[in-house]
Amino acid sequence: MILKNIKQLVTFTGHEAIPGNDPARAQILEGIDIKIEDGLISQIGPNLSGIGPEIDCSDFTVTPGYVDSHTHFIFGGNREDEYRMRLAGASYVEIMEAGGGIRTSVRHTRAASLEDLVESGRIRLMGFLENGITSLESKSGYGLDLETELRQLEAMKVLQAQSALTIVPTFMGAHDIPEEFADRPKAYLDYILETVLPEVTKQGIAQYVDIFTEKGVFGIEESRDFLEQVKQQGYPIRMHADEIVPLDGAVLAGQVAAVSADHLLQISPRGIEALKRSGTIAGLLPLTAFSLRAEYAPARDLLDAGVPVNLATDYNPGSCHSFSVPLLIALSTIYMRMSMLEVLCGLTINPAASLGIAHQVGTLEVGKRADILLHRAPNIHFLPYHFGVNTVEIVIINGEVQLDRRNSHVSRK
Question: Burial level of 10, CB count in 10 A (0-12/13-18/19+)?
Fold first, then answer.
C-alpha cells in the first residue's frame, strides 16, 4: 500500500524515546508519501511507487495511531443509575461510601462469564477503533478475587488474539477493598501478593501492576510496601495517584520509580518535582475530570517543569464511560491549555513508551508498524478547532485498513 501526496504528515521523532511534549520535536511534512510493506513503514518520501493499492491523501492530515495508556474496558454490567445520582449532586466518594462505585462493578463482573466479558469487550474495542485508538492498555480490578481477576485478564488475552488492536494487560487487583476484606486493606494486599499475583505470574497474562492510592482505599505506606514487593517480583508499576484527595501519591510514584502516575488532579509542587526527578510519566485523564465536575490536572505546570505527559481516556464503567478522543482533545487544549502538538505527543509516542511498545508504534518512521490515521482535516490544528467532532476517516493497523468512513452512506428522504 502507498499513501500518496499526503496533505500534512505530523509525527514526533525519537523512535523509542520519550520526547517529552516539546513541539520543536514534531516533524511536519507536506506533499509526502508513505510506502507500506509487510505491515511496516518501508519508505517515507516524495513520489514513491510500487505494487499494491494507493490511497490519495491530498485531502488528509496523517498521524500515528493513538495509543490509550489507561483504560478499564473489561467489566460486567453498567452504572448509569449511579451516574444519574452524580448528575443530581452526589459525589464520587459519597457513592462509594454508600456501597456503589467500583464495588457495583465488582458484583457485575464476578457474575459475568468469560464469554460475556469477551463479547462486551469486543464491542468496546470497536468504539476505541472508531476514535483512532490502535493500541491500548487494559486493567483488571473489577474482580478483587483470584477467579475473576484471572478471568478479566484471560478476556484481554482472547481479545488480543482476535483483534487488530494491540492490548497491553495490567493487573490491578489493588483497585479497591472487597467486602470480604472490609476495613482490612493490608490483609487484602497481602492476599493479592501471596495468592493472586503468583497465579497471574504463572499464567503470564499481565505486563504491569497498578494500585489505587486514595483516601478510603490504599494509603501511602500501604501502597509503598505493596509496590516495593511487586517490583521485587519483576513487574514495572503504574499508579492511580492524587485523584480526589491530595495524598502526595505522585511523590510516592517518584520514590518507587513508577512508570506512570495517573489522574493527578490534586498533585502538589512536591509531586511535580518528584515525577521530574524520577522520569515518571504523568498520565492525565481529562474526560474523567469532566465527568466528575472536577478541576483538571495542572498540565501546564507539569509540562513547564519538563514532566512528560500522557493523555488517556480512562474508559471505565463509572467515572468515565467514554472513549471520545475528540472530546479529550477539546478539554486538553481549552481547559488544560495544551497545544495540539503537545496533545498529539501525549496520544502517541509518550504512551507508547510508557507501555513498552514504542519500538513498534507511536511514531511514523521507517521500520515501525504501519498504525496510521487519516484525518479529514487540512492540518493538525484543525482538530481542536473542529472541537468535539471525529476527524478520523481511515484507520490503518499493521498495514491493513480496519476502518474506512468514505464507504459509509447516509440516506436522505
Answer: buried
Whether residue 171 contacts residue 197, with contact meaning beta carbons closer than 8 Å, is answered with yes
> How much is the average pLDDT of 129-147?
98
Q: Which grid cell is 213?
A: 492510592
Residue range(s) in the chain whose domain bears CATH number 3.20.20.140: 67-323
Strands (E), 274-345: 281-284, 309-311
CA distances from 109 to 95, 142, 204, 215, 363 (A): 18, 6, 21, 24, 36
Q: Which class does domain 2-64+363-407 fall in?
A: mainly beta
What's the CA gap between 41 and 60, in Å, rounded?
Answer: 18
Sheet holding 208-212, edge to edge: 66-68, 133-139, 166-174, 208-212, 237-241, 260-263, 281-284, 309-311
Cα separation, 318 vs 320, whole angstroms = 6
| CB of 210 closer than 8 Å to CB of 239 | yes
Burial class of residue 318 (count of CB atoms within 10 Å of its CB; 0-12, 13-18, 19+): buried
Span 8-41, pLDDT tens digits: 999 998 766 676 788 888 999 999 999 999 999 9
What average pLDDT does this structure show over 207-233? 97
Specify which residues 263 forms β-bridges with: 241
Give the residues across from 238 on adjacent strands.
210, 260
Query: What is the CATH number that goes with domain 67-323?
Result: 3.20.20.140
Mean pLDDT of the chain: 94
Residue 16, pLDDT score: 62
Q: Coil, strand or helix: which one is 16?
A: coil
Residue 133 has pLDDT above 90, yes or no: yes
Which three-class secondary structure state does DSSP give residue 282?
strand
- One-letter identity of residue 52: G
pLDDT tens-digit map of 291-313: 999 999 999 999 999 999 999 99
Residues of the chain with CATH 2.30.40.10: 2-64+363-407
Local structure of residue 178 (DSSP, 8 states): -
Over 90: is that where the pLDDT of 409 sits?
no
Please give the Cα distance from 67 to 76 (Å, whole number).
24
